[in-house]
Amino acid sequence: MMDEATGDEESSGSLATAMSGGMLVSASKVFALGFGYLTQIVMARLLTQSGYGDVILTIAVINVTVLLATLGLNDGLMREFPNHEDDPKKARGVVRAGLIISVISGSVVAIAVFVSAPIFAREVFNDPSLAELIRVGAVGVPFIVLGKNAVALARGSRDAKPRAIVDQLIRPVLRFGFIAGLVIAGFGALGAITGQIAAMSVAGLLVTAFALRLLPSPFGESTSMYRPILAFSLPLIAVQGMNFLNSSLDIYMIGYFLDSAQVGVYNIALQLSNLTTVALITVAFLLPPIITRLDKKGKQKELLATYQGLTKWMMMLAVPIFVVLFFAPRIVINLLFGAKYTDGALVLQIVIVGKLVAILSGLNFKSLIALGDNRFVSYMMFAQLVLNFVANYLLIPVYGIVGGAVALTLSAVAGDLLGALVLFRQYDLHPLSLSLLVPVSLLGGIAGVGFVVTTVAGLPLWVVIIPLAVGYPIVVARFAIEPRDEMLLGLFEDRIGRELTPVRNVVNRLQ
Question: What ranges in 258-400 are assigned the alpha helix state H?
Answer without folding.
Answer: 260-273, 277-284, 287-296, 300-327, 329-337, 345-360, 364-370, 374-399
